[in-house]
Amino acid sequence: MRSADTSSATARYHPVSMALHWLLALMILGALGVGLYMVSLPFSPTRLKLINWHKWLGMTILVLSAARLLWRLTHRPPADLPMPAWQRAAAHGAHAALYGLFFAVPLVGWAYSSAAGFPVVWFGVLPLPDWVQPNRELAEAIKPWHGWLAYTLAAVVAVHVAAALKHHFIDRDGLLDRMRPGRA
Amino acid sequence: MNLRPRTLYSLTLAAALLAAAVDPIHAQPQPATLVAAGSEIVFTTRQMGVPVEGKFGSFSAQIALDPKKPETGSVAFRIDTGSARFGSAELDAEVPKPTWLSVARFPQASFQSSAIKAAGPGKFEVAGKLTIKGSVRDLVVPVQVAQAAGNSTASGSFTIKRLDFKVGEAEWADTSMLANDVQVRFKLVLTGIAPL
């Protein structure tokens, strides 16, 4: 069903929700990209620089995700667009999984860094506490989890983007307009 | 020459005292023994703000110190550069390379004192030369000595600049990536040092 009048039929997200969505989308894609690239490098100043930037980005994502969750819990998003029940369930499930991964991925990364004996110093100036004690065996056990969770996040993001595009361009229900900043 | 016994005796005594006064070796204290258990040499630097700590697992010391006459003493150290350990397998494998400690060419770093002076109760200042990777630099190390149950524990810390010794060359010379300052902390357990 085509929405002839998108300005009233397609209620949009709050501007703050939109800002957090796009900002965090960029940061998460950035962190995924840097993460994939940096592990392929040999030990070098470039590798260390990228690892540190990756950690700073991850910590920033963690803090902003907490703010975003708080916002989400206190500001109801627009009502779902009409769609089959299974698609609605899949959308809500995917969004819940994304919120879970927004926290799990950086928390596990932080734990790995602490266990490996490298405390995280945010932007090179603010030392963050080790929430896991330095322990070589523990670091080895945690290490693969950060990668697996990151790959899972990337997969859910891919499905999220594909589904949004399908709704907007195949179903033509104006879904993307809900997240489009600017005038209605 | 025929000398009377008393004159001969006086002359011999005078000669011995003169020899003792001009030959300080005769006045040097007994060498102390380093107790490996409880002794450590730890160094810390910062990589983009992140503290990185390592320690040397193998070192020896030749220390002779009379706390009441520190100027007669001497301190010498030899550290096996190949014994540096970081708690990270990646760093343990990297640091012996030529860019860093170049262990194959320089298996030992060393310190040799030139002067020791008192600097307060149980405190000394040891001046000498530090040699790492073929570079020599003057160094003054403040040392605190505490004694208990026949053991003396000498501890202290000092800061060196890694680039003075070419540790971390070429691309690693960038001090915004890896700080130039390296803090060295030591704690040495010794036996055979006279009471303070």
Quick overview:
Chain A has 184 residues and is an all-alpha fold. Chain A has five helices and two strands, in the order H-H-H-H-E-E-H.
Q: First CA to last CA of chain A: what distance? A: 20 Å
Strand order of the largest sheet of chain A: 1-2
Q: What's the total helix number of chain B?
A: 2
The poorly predicted ranges of chain A are: 1-9
Task: Tell me what the structure shows.
The complex is a heterodimer of chains A (184) and B (196). Chain A is mainly alpha-helical and 184 residues long. Chain A has a single domain (9-179), classed as Fumarate Reductase Cytochrome B subunit. Chain A has 5 helices and 2 strands; from the N terminus they run ααααββα. Chain A has helices at 6-9, 15-38, 45-74, 85-115, 136-170; strands spanning 121-122, 126-127. Chain A has a two-stranded antiparallel ribbon. In chain A, strand 1 and strand 2 form a beta hairpin. Residues 1-9 of chain A have low confidence and may be disordered. Chain B is built from 2 helices and 10 strands, in the order αβββββαβββββ. The mean pLDDT of chain B is 91. The termini of chain B are far apart. Chain B has one domain (27-191): Lipid/polyisoprenoid-binding, YceI-like (Lipocalin), CATH 2.40.128. Helix content of chain B is 12%, strand content 48%. In chain B, 21% of the residues are buried. Chain B is mainly beta. In chain B, strand 1 (33-47) and strand 2 form a beta hairpin. Classes of the chains: A mainly alpha (184), B mainly beta (196). Chain A binds chain B through residues 43-45, 48-49, 52, 116-121, 123-125, 127, 134, 136, and chain B through 47-52, 86-88, 90, 94, 171-172, 174, 177-178.
